[in-house]
Amino acid sequence: MKKNMSVIIFTFLFITILNSEEIAFTWQLPVNIGDDRFTVYLALGIPNEVISRETLGNKYDWPQDQTNEYFYANGIIVIFVKDKVNRIVVNSFVDYTGWKDYTGNIINEVSLLDNRQKLILKLGKPFIMKTDPIYKTDSDEFGFPLYSNSYYTWLMGKYRIEIEVANTDQVIDSKNNTVRPQDGINTIAITENKN
Questions:
Q1: How confident is the model over 139-167, as pLDDT tens digits?
Q2: Going by C-beta distance under 8 Å and a sequence separation of 6 or more, which residues neighbour residue 117?
């Protein structure tokens, strides 16, 4: 029994070591997790939109110390907790008037223009991967009535990187014929890795 248990533990550890990829990590965003508000404003300017308990009133159960700030010209959403950057989000499409997608590299040469294959080449094997079932939408007029996303998580040093990738072509704006392509990046969100 002890021998079987030892073999199982050894096999598990060996597979874990084989599956763990150590990829060097390069931060490329203009702001970082833990930055204070003043540092963020120096880098990005004043936010176009602020969502907080004060701006929402008592209509929602919003965390007391959390503020979401939208920097339209930079294509970045910064989430502060107690006046420190807790989460940074970049999206491949936001329909706010004046919003510009972030065009620079984010981490390890990853950009919003990359596809699933480039993403995995640049970041290595994800720690967690989940995939939605394929959903049918009624709002689509362009022959893409199904959509689905995959969600990848990497734990790299002090960072937790969560990336959503489209599994199907997705109509974002039927009036302007904006389609998010299959295998394209929807969202990249970075927080502190507390594990």
A1: 545 555 566 788 999 998 889 999 999 87
A2: 183
Q: Which residues contact 56 (CB under 8 A, 6 or more apart)?
A: 62
DSSP category for residue 107 = B
Judged against a pLDDT cut of 50, whether residue 11 lies above it is answered with: no
* Cβ neighbours around 103 below 10 Å, total: 11
Percent of the chain scoring above 70 in pLDDT = 74
Which sequence spans correspond to the domains of the chain?
Answer: 24-192
The total of other beta-carbon atoms located within 10 Å of residue 107's CB is 20
With beta carbons less than 8 A apart as the criterion, state whether 101 and 48 touch. Answer: no
6: tokens are 């030892």
**What's the sign of the alpha-carbon dihedral 44, 49, 54, 58?**
negative
- Distance (Å) of CA 83 to CA 25, 67, 80, 108, 162: 26, 8, 5, 27, 22
How would you classify residue 177: left for phi > 0, otherwise alpha for psi between -120 and 50, otherwise beta? left
